[in-house]
Design goal:
Blueprint (H helix, E strand, L loop, with lengths): L2 H10 L1 E4 L1 H9 L7 E8 L4 E2 L8 E11 L2 E3 L4 E7 L4 E8 L18 E2 L4 E12 L5 E10 L2 E10 L2 E10 L2 E2 L7 E7 L2
Parallel strand pairs: 3-8
Antiparallel strand pairs: 1-2, 1-14, 2-4, 4-5, 4-6, 6-7, 7-9, 9-10, 10-11, 11-12, 12-13, 12-14
Length: about 190
Amino acid sequence: MDKVLKRFCEILCGTLDNAAQVEAETKAGKQVHPYARHVTDIFSHRVLNRPEGHEGIYVLEESYYTYPGREMDLKPLLFYLTSDGKSKVFLQSVQIPEKFKPEEATNANEDFVLQYNDLSIRPFGIAEYTLMETDQFTTNHIGIIGPGMTFQLTETLSDGHLSVMEIVRKDGVKLTPYDTPIDYIKIEDN
């Protein structure tokens, strides 16, 4: 793994949440963002029968969101990461086969393994992250995720912190219920 990809994984992987942000919003009288927690770890060793020379890194991200009074059921995301070895990391979203239930597709489930030939790239495009002089990675990526649907990811990753703004639009109409990023703080390394 080259140093740029290694640094990106060091920042991205771990357990992160926005409890501090939600607590501040609640104290101010209005919770704007959902409570969100990500459990992210390197998954490459559990993608079996990869072809020789397939150099990238697979990362599994479990996402849990709770709005006041309701939890959202989200499927885990599998990402394939590559790098130019200088200052860029390229992220592609990979389809986890439908035969797996979300509750079994976790980092903690050591029996959860995938066959390389069962994987396909999702229609998200390639998000390009740039390593800045400040040791932060940034991206502003817009991907098409379905008919008339776009997903905009504006993200800054730094030591112990992720600032993530995800905007979903349907036929140009914004569906995301908030206008500011979710601020994740790393609460443990995996």
